[in-house]
Amino acid sequence: QVQLVESGGGLVQAGGSLRLSCAASGSIFRVNAMGWYRQAPGKQRELVARITSGGSTLYADSVKGRFTISRDNAKNTVYLQMNSLKPEDTAVYYCNAHYTTNRGSVVEHWGRGTQVTVSS
Fold this sequence. Notes:
About 0% of the residues lie in helices and about 60% in strands. By secondary structure, the chain is mainly beta. The strands form two sheets. Strands 2, 4, 5, 6, 9, 10 and 11 form a seven-stranded mixed β-sheet that branches. A hairpin with a 4-residue loop joins strand 7 and strand 8. It is elongated and about 50 Å long.
């Protein structure tokens, strides 16, 4: 019943910007936290940024000052504004959500991923 729909990925030149969006829908009582992870070829999936329902944020050191995560709680949507993109940002970006179901259980869900490619 719960779906995470990602959008905004694509191809951009170094120094450019992209804005990723992830909308959670379905039988959700409350979204506790949402975040973005990425996985580059040959590398382990890593946390990029995360935001709680209260607005607390966490960023990977590699993206601090360049990326900004935000959310619209009413729409259960999280955004990732990516500025000053570098070739090393090239990866598949995955949306992640921790939410409470109508039955009171805390569940984790993942999006399918969206490709971000930064050319030199």
